[in-house]
Amino acid sequence: MTRLSPLLTQATGVTAVKGEGVYLFDAEGRRYLDFTSGIGVTNTGHCHPAVVEAAQHQTGELIHGQYTTVLHPALLELTARLGDVLPPGLDSLFFTSAGTEAVEAATRLAKQTTGRTNLIVFQGSFHGRTTAALSMTTSKAAYRAGLQPLMAGVFVAPFPYAYRYGWDENTTTEFALRELDYLFATQSAPRETAAIVVEPVLGEGGYVPATPGFLEGLRERCDRHSILLVIDEVQTGFGRTGRFWGHEHYNVHPDVLVTAKGLASGFPLSAIAASTELMERAWAGSQGGTYGGNAVACAAAVATLDVIEKEGLVENAATLGAHLMDALRVLQQRYPVIGDVRGKGLMVATEFTTRGEPDATRAKHMQAAVERRRLLMLTCGPLGNVIRWIPPLIVTREQIDQALGIFEEALASTAEEER
C-alpha cells in the first residue's frame, strides 16, 4: 500500500473534506475555525463563491495555455489588473507557480542585471526550499540539514528582532544597520553585492515586523551602492498586513517585488514584478516554465483581486488586526507566558517564554489544546515557541473573539497540565 512520505510532518490531525469561509470540515462533519489559511494563502476564505465561479468557468474554456507557447485572456487580464495594485514603476511581470520559484527568478534577475554575484539576506528569513532560495533561508536549521554546501555568495545580516535582543526598537534598528555596514566591510563588498532580499515581516522566522527605519536604511544603502532591493511579499502581500503590500508600512520602494500565497486564493501562482527597464537588462531565455501563468490560476487571481476590493479586505485586516492585538495584550497581562505580542494586520504572533527563555513546549501544547477545541493554528519561529494568527481576511470580529475565547481556555488548561 502506498502512502505519503514519512518526511511530511502534519501540524494537525485533521483531514479536511470541505472548506467554507473561515471554516474547515472533516469527514465526520466537525467544523474547525481555520486560523492557518493554508499558511497565509486563503486570504479570501475557503471556496469564496466568486473565486469558485471564476475557476469553474475558466476550466470549461481553457485549463492550460503554456504561456511561452500561447497567450490567453486570463493571463493578460491579470497582468493588467496587477498594475492597479503594484508599486509605481513595477510594470513588468514574470509568473511562476510557487513562491520559491519566484525568489529564484528574482535572484537570477538581480545577478544578470547587475553583473554582481552576491546576495544579502537576514537572520530568520524564509525564502523557499529550492536550492538558491534555501541558501537564503535561515529561519530553521532543519530546512538546510544535510544539504550543505548550498549556493555560495549568500551572506546573512541581523534582522531587527527587538524582543529577542531585549532592546528598544531604535537601538535594535541601529544595531542591525551597523552590522550590515560591517558585513559590507568584511564579507560582501557593495561592488559585488547584487541584491538585498528582505521580508517586511519575517514569516517562518517568527512573525517579526521590521522596525521603523530599518527598511528605509536598506533602501538608502541600496541607492548609495547601486544594489537592488528585493522585497519578498510572498506571505505579507495581498492585504495580509492591513496594507495591500507589507512594505507599504514603511517609506520604501522595491526594485523587485516577489508575490505568491494570497495571489490566487489557493491556486498555485506566484510572480515577480520589476520595471520593464530592469527586466530588459536580463539575459534572453532566463525566464520560463511549464505551469507559470496557468489559465485557471490566473482567473482565480483576477477574482481574488475583485473580492479584496469589493469586500474591503485590506481595511478589514487593519481593523480586526488592531482589535486582535489589543485583546492579546490583555491576555498577556493575565498570562506572563506570553512574552511578546507583535504583528501587522492579521499577521500576528504570540511568543511564549518561561522565566525569560523560549518555551516551545508550551507553544506546542497550546497548538494541540486549541485544536481539541476546534481552532486550527500554527507555530513558527526558529525555536518553535511562536503561535501565529493568520485567519482569512474575511474573518469577522465575532469569529476573532471566538478564537480568542478558545485561546484563553487553552492557556488556562495548559497551565494546569504543566503544574
Task: Report on this structure.
The protein has 419 residues and is of the alpha/beta class. The protein folds into two domains: 16-47 and 311-417, Alpha-Beta Complex (Aspartate Aminotransferase, domain 1), CATH 3.90.1150.10; 49-310, Type I PLP-dependent aspartate aminotransferase-like (Major domain) (Aspartate Aminotransferase, domain 2, 3-Layer(aba) Sandwich). 39% of the residues lie in helices and 18% in strands. It has helices at 37-40, 49-61, 73-82, 99-114, 131-135, 141-144, 162-165, 169-186, 214-225, 276-280, 295-310, 313-334, 360-372, 397-417, and strands at 16-20, 23-26, 31-34, 92-96, 118-122, 154-157, 193-198, 201-202, 208-209, 228-232, 256-259, 270-274, 338-344, 347-354, 357-358, 375-376, 378-380, 386-389. It has a seven-stranded mixed beta sheet. Strands 13, 14, 15, 17 and 18 form a five-stranded antiparallel beta sheet that branches. The termini are far apart. The model has no long low-confidence stretch (mean pLDDT 97).
* Termini Cα gap: 43 Å
Q: In order across it, which strands form the biggest sheet? A: 4-12-11-10-7-5-6
Q: Measured on Cα atoms, how large is the radius of gyration?
A: 21 Å
Q: In total, how many beta strands?
A: 18
The major beta sheet can be summarized as: 7 strands, mixed
The assigned CATH architecture of the largest domain is 3-Layer(aba) Sandwich
Helicity, as a percent range? 25-40%
β-strand amount: 15-25%
- So, the CATH homologous superfamily of the largest domain? Type I PLP-dependent aspartate aminotransferase-like (Major domain)
What is the total domain count? Answer: 2
- Coarse structural class: alpha/beta
Q: Outline, from the CA principal axes?
A: globular
The CATH top-level class label of the largest domain: Alpha Beta
Overall mean pLDDT stands at: 97
Low-confidence stretches: none
Number of helices: 14
CATH topology of the largest domain: Aspartate Aminotransferase, domain 2
